[in-house]
Design a protein that fits this description.
heterodimer, A: alpha+beta, Ubiquitin-like (UB roll), Rossmann fold, 3 domains, five-stranded mixed beta sheet, B: 444 residues, alpha/beta, four-stranded parallel beta sheet, 15 helices
Chain lengths: 581, 444
């Protein structure tokens, strides 16, 4: 640690921090474009120039004669930083005037407007007017730069964050600087677009509106978006994300820096893979074979509302009765009857898409009815192998020490968390595929799905599961999409996707992270926690903080959840496992 | 030693027939210095160069011996030597003459320098346009390998060295030492941030020394004839200024522009610009007078006629507001030439050659060129002069607003032109006349 003085504020900073980080610790913002925590330092934008000096042991301060880039200057003990002197301000104004010389100032049609560092810094540190009397350099936009990204060339400030990202993080090096001087541009090699699986990150990295996401382009003004801290459910890496929504429609996911989880970035699979939550094919409410009126078909609702499914659900529009109480009561009674007749022939299948809380609620409820009830681990989707970055020059995977980002083959967020719950209640983990070998004798099933399978022709139900459940006397399915099972189920609960629920996911390394509902579930579907809370006849509302404390007190391997609030970065389970044992 | 009695050192063999061949070089006593150096310890060679007061001839004038001693001691693995032959400063052609006419003199210095710095590989970075230089050098290097002057166990010693020639790709920025290293590594020649300095982490992330061609030619003669001989030429240290390292030794002055006899002359450091023009370049052409003189490549700025008695040593041009001696490439501008046109041409060069890494230089050079273009078209405003001055002071003040020093070079012509020729610029703007000079089109 070293003590530095930023505008006379004394702060303690780490030995590897630079002056931007030191100033941040003191609550002072030093504007910067090219510097990014996860990328190498180039010190080329010259936006972060500050006056630097040294506080001598005798208390005198010797200031350096020139401005230095804060990003490149280490925060050595005794460093004195001044960010508000006339010299610094003139430097900032001049740099901003330079950056705006050839900038088209098309904020009114720019996607970045509202979250643009060129706007913000000009407002805070710049001058109101440019002294340019000559024509601007005009450059052509490049929509071809990537499948998911477009380059508005003339808005670029040449910070080269995107170039460094493709070289240092993805290792694919598609982006480069071409030409020289004031006419230089970011470009790709002809016919080699930037289509790597992390390419979407360059849009986030771009401090201005040069690189835009084609998926989000012109969809929504950013100031209408509300962000919710969440966790990507795409794979077991569990990237910390922000879910940006407006009026219950998710417009985009953005990575949220988390040193304990993935770092600063997320993959395109996760970034653009959330669209299934807005699918028109979603289960829309509870249905039951015995109560013909329960639920409304999704197509009917869509037709009735005349808009896209996933939009705000208006009960008044539908003019239907809330069938949830009846459906839940029926399920409760049927489960009770089935368990009472033969507990060992009742099985509940837990999906790795469930949160820890949901798994706990269902497991504790069923085991509370009878401890011979079988709790089975549902299918764990695995696609290919872990995909590690940065790629080597020849495209091969990096060594473990050099890996900076991994897209995991396990395409579910919470296998570890659900397993811990199941192991606690069951002793041993039984995958469903094992349980249905031969004469399994299971006659009543409670299935939880939640998989991202909007196309019900594929579904998550394997042929062997479909066959094994055919002779069942009772079949209850809690899912978000129709499947072979939901079509023949006695009762179907329409659950919620990850952007619509609250809960805890435990990623591949045992990091427990909280995710929060950003939108409401569509139509008459409900958050799974709420369904289960009512099914179990628990008092009060479904409350994740309260439940985490309860889980921690009951399940020793999840003791770390006792904090209740997991914070923005989550809690690593293994930290406390040792202490517990 | 007066300039009249000066015997050329670096150019001594220039007009001899076949001066570029190894045989002719050896006949004149060539490679005696190398033999001498190989009998000395590495530290002794460095000390000798330090004692000679030799300062780098590439532009910055950094003491060569001191640069060599910055290499980390007791390290394992390779050390590299880069020879900067990316001679791109407008008006500069001393390295070209040295390489084309007497390459072995340079190569001998390189081997000595590499021996002193424990480098086992040297990269000779040559600007691409120097095709003839490249062929001459390649031939000379081949001759050296054949004669055991390069390769394993040079001259029977246990020192081995390889020299690789590397042709650049036509960019001014490759002459900046870290830009050169990046280019050598096959990357875009964007100068690196320092620290780490090349002596600690240079080419291929190894300790690296970067030296100019003429500097290495001087090393040959220093080893041959001693530090004292070298110090007998030039301007001694200012005893009142402890930071002055003196300006010793011979220097090649390139004279171009509006003179009767442009060319390359060798003189001890410290000759005045006036003497160079009048005595060695046959005076200003067409019987005219000089209006402005560039002391050492356009990036050093301008001297006015009144300042022509300034000695062209490392400290001289700085005393009259120029950036420094630079490459000692003297460009003479006669009094019939408009300073607006001269300045426009200089700015256009830097706008074209700015590497585009740092914002102030990338945008500032292009902006100032646009302003001068407008002034030249008769649409200037008096406030443009102050704007140009502000831009130029924002472009670079080492190490402040930009990564490398070349941005200062881009600023200095503007600064000095305005400081010394402001009335003329103002008069031009007021008159609203269009430039009589032909429009410049195309690349440089």
């Amino acid at each position: 640690m070293s003590t530095v003085f930023v505008n006379d504020i004394e702060v303690e900073v780490g030995p590897r921090d630079n002056l931007i980080q030191a100033a941040r610790a003191a609550g002072v913002e030093i504007p910067h474009y090219c510097w990014h925590e996860a990328l190498s330092v180039v010190a080329s934008c010259r936006m972060c120039l500050v006056e630097v000096g040294e506080k001598k042991p005798d208390g005198t301060i010797a200031m350096g004669p020139k401005l230095v880039p804060a990003c490149q200057t280490p925060a050595k003990p005794g460093t004195v930083v001044k960010t508000e002197t006339a010299k610094v301000k003139t430097g900032q104004q001049m740099t901003l005037e330079f950056l705006l010389l050839n900038h088209p100032l098309d904020c009114s049609i720019c996607d970045q407007a509202g979250e643009c560092y060129l706007q913000d810094y000009t407002y805070k540190f710049g001058k109101a007017q440019s002294r340019l009397n000559e024509p601007k350099v005009q450059r052509l936009d490049k929509y071809h730069i990537g499948e998911q990204i477009a380059l508005f060339t003339d808005r670029c400030v040449m910070c080269t964050r995107c170039v460094r990202f493709t070289r240092e993080i993805s290792g694919t090096a598609e982006l480069q600087v071409v030409a020289r001087g004031s006419v230089e541009e970011i470009d790709v090699f002809p016919n080699k677009p930037c289509n790597n699986k992390l390419a979407g990150n360059v849009v986030d990295l771009c401090p201005v509106g040069a690189l835009c996401s084609k998926d989000f382009l012109y969809k929504k003004r950013v100031w209408w978006l509300k962000s919710q801290k969440s966790v990507c459910a795409g794979c077991s890496t569990g990237c910390s994300i922000e879910v940006d929504q407006n009026e219950d429609h998710v417009y985009r996911l953005r990575p949220r820096a988390n040193p304990l989880a993935q770092g600063h970035f997320m993959c395109d699979e996760g970034r653009f893979g959330f669209k299934y939550v807005q699918s028109t094919n979603r289960l829309s409410g509870p249905t039951s074979k015995s109560i013909a009126t329960v639920g409304v078909a999704a197509s009917a609702v869509t037709k009735f509302n005349g808009n896209v499914a996933g939009k705000l659900f208006q009960p008044a529009d539908l003019a239907v009765v809330d069938h949830w109480p009846a459906a839940i009561q029926e399920a409760r009674e049927k489960i009770k009857a089935a368990v009472d007749s033969s507990a060992s022939s009742f099985a509940a299948v837990f999906s790795p898409m469930m949160s820890v809380e949901e798994a706990y609620l269902l497991a504790s409820y069923l085991k509370g009815l009878n401890r011979n009830v079988k709790l089975l681990m549902g299918p764990v989707p695995v696609v290919g192998e872990d995909d590690c970055y940065p790629k080597n020059v020849n495209g091969s995977a990096p060594t473990a020490e050099k890996t900076k980002f991994t897209i995991r083959a396990e395409k579910c967020p919470n296998r570890l968390g659900v397993e811990k719950v199941l192991k606690h209640f069951q002793g041993a983990l039984v995958p469903i595929e094992d349980a249905i070998q031969g004469a399994h004798g299971i006659q009543a099933w409670y299935f939880v799905g939640g998989y991202a399978t909007p196309d019900d022709s594929i579904g998550w139900v394997s042929p062997s599961i479909a066959k094994a459940t055919e002779p069942a006397k009772l079949l209850i399915v809690q899912d978000i999409f129709p499947s072979v099972l939901s079509k023949r189920a006695d009762i179907v609960f329409a659950g919620a996707a990850f952007t619509e629920r609250d809960g805890t996911f435990i990623n591949h390394s045992g990091l427990a992270q909280a995710f929060r509902a950003a939108t409401r579930p569509p139509q008459a579907s409900r958050a799974d926690g709420r369904i289960l809370n009512e099914l179990c006849l628990r008092q009060g509302l479904y409350n994740t903080e309260f439940l985490r404390k309860e889980i921690a007190s009951k399940i020793p391997s999840l003791e770390s959840l006792s904090v209740g609030d997991l914070g923005v970065h989550g809690v690593e389970l293994h930290q406390l496992v040792g202490a517990h044992l | 030693m007066t300039n009249a009695s000066f015997e050329p050192v670096l150019l001594a063999r220039i007009n001899k027939p076949d001066s570029a061949s190894l045989a002719s070089y050896k006949a004149d006593g060539g490679y005696a210095g190398l033999r001498k150096a190989l009998d000395m310890t590495q530290a002794q060679v460095i000390d000798l160069v330090k004692a000679s007061g030799l300062r780098g001839r590439g532009g910055a004038g950094f003491p060569t011996g001191m640069k060599w001693s910055f290499l980390p001691q007791n390290i394992t693995g390779p050390i590299y030597m880069c020879i900067n032959g990316d001679e791109s400063e407008p008006g500069t052609f001393n390295n070209r003459i040295l390489i084309e006419e007497d390459p072995h003199q340079v190569l001998e210095g390189i081997v000595i320098g590499c021996y002193a710095t424990r480098a086992t590989t040297a990269y000779f970075y040559l600007r691409y346009e120097y095709g003839h230089c490249y062929r001459t050098l390649q031939k000379a290097v081949d001759e050296m390998y054949a004669a055991g002057l390069l390769g394993k166990n040079i001259l029977g010693s246990n020192y081995s060295l390889d020299i690789h020639l590397h042709r650049g790709a036509c960019a001014y920025i490759c002459g900046e030492e870290t830009g050169l290293i990046e280019s050598l590594e096959g990357k875009r020649a964007w100068p690196r941030i320092k620290p780490p300095f090349p002596a600690v982490e240079g080419a291929f992330r190894r300790p690296t020394v970067v030296n100019n061609v003429e500097t290495m030619a001087c090393v040959t003669h220093i080893v041959n004839r001693g530090a004292e001989w070298f110090q007998s030429m030039g301007i001694a240290k200012d005893p009142n200024n402890p930071r002055d390292a003196g300006s010793y030794g011979p220097k090649l002055y390139c004279i171009s522009g509006h003179v009767n006899k442009p060319g390359l002359v060798e003189l001890p450091l410290g000759v005045t610009a006036r003497e160079l023009i009048d005595k060695h370049a046959g005076g200003v052409w067409k019987g005219r007078k000089a209006k402005a003189v560039v002391p050492g490549g356009i990036s050093m700025g301008f001297m006015s006629e009144a300042e022509l008695d300034t000695p062209l040593d490392f400290a001289g041009p700085g005393r009259v507001g120029c950036l420094g001696l630079g490459t000692a490439a003297v460009i003479v501008i006669d009094d019939h030439t408009s300073m607006v046109d001269v300045l426009y041409n200089a700015c256009r060069f830097f706008a074209h050659e700015s590497c585009g890494q740092c914002t102030p230089c990338r945008e500032g050079t292009a902006w100032s060129t646009k302003i001068l273009e407008r002034i030249r078209s008769g649409n200037g405003k008096l406030s443009d002069i102050d704007l140009l001055l502000e831009i130029s002071s924002s472009i670079g003040t080492i190490p402040g607003t930009t990564i490398c020093g070349l941005a200062d070079g881009a600023a200095w012509p503007i600064k000095t032109a305005i400081a010394k020729f402001r009335p003329e610029l103002e008069e031009y703007i007021r008159s609203g006349r269009k430039s009589a000079a032909p429009q410049l089109v195309g690349a440089h």
